[in-house]
Structure prediction request, 208 residues.
Amino acid sequence: MNYQTKPYFKTHTHQTHLNDKPWIEARLTEEEMNFLNQAILDGNRGENMNKTLAGNISKSEAIKDKDNWFFETVLKKLISRVCSDEDLEMDRFWVNYQKQYEFNPLHNHSGVFSFVVFMKIPTDWKEQHSLPFIGHANTPCASDFAFVWSKKDTNKIFKCTFPLSPKDEGRMLFFPAWLEHTVHPFYGTEEERVTISGNIRSMIEFSF
Prediction:
């Protein structure tokens, strides 16, 4: 796993510079991707997650982190760049199958941290952004993933868009669960986009 950005997201109140990004970006190794692909196969016809998730998509299914391998091998390294991994564990772990026209509305997740791994991207953003009904727009976003957040002591809303293509397969975004994000629809193919997501929670129970 190779890191590509500096971590900066203990809480949104700590974002003080315009170039601070509240996520960590990584590229998974072949071994890590093989593990996830096997988890998808092993979880075929797993628990349907659609009713508990925001996605306006055809299918989301629960998968298992066998022997806690992905948490120990990948997630702990990412967590350690932000805080101690003590008392943290994987909560939910699932695979999304998105068809053309489907989308994920702006939402956040439960827990402390979340992540998304792009497993299969059947379209290229350059072609998607050039579709006849999109090419003339000043904000083309077909097939894009995006984060949306605010900064302390400002009245501004910031958005970072990730145009996606098959080259992004194996790319992972690790972020605080409060960070709002959305997935725009894609067009022109019957192939599914496949992503894996998960939430990380604290094992400590708080009483108020």
Summary: The longest helix spans residues 30-42. The two ends are 39 Å apart (CA to CA). Residues 21-202 form a domain with the Jelly Rolls fold (CATH 2.60.120.620). Confidence is low (pLDDT under 50) at residues 5-18.
